[in-house]
Specification:
Blueprint: H1 3-60
């Protein structure tokens, strides 16, 4: 094996490790954004349900 082949193999290993790290970060960020979007949708639904429930209670009182 010559010196260029060793550097090529080391370069490929380092590239794979960096790619693995970046993809892990990307998936973590995407999972956080997806979770945040789901929480926002559920919060809006709960808000409108609570608003409807409390507006009905308030309208029945004299």
């Amino acid at each position: 094996m010559n010196k260029g082949t060793i550097w090529t193999i080391l370069g490929v290993i380092v590239a794979i490790l960096i790619a693995w790290f970046l993809v892990n970060i990307l998936f973590s960020v995407l999972a956080f954004v997806f979770k945040l979007a789901v929480v926002a949708v559920v919060a809006v639904i709960v808000f409108f349900i609570l608003r409807a429930v409390f507006s009905r209670d308030g309208s029945e009182r004299p």
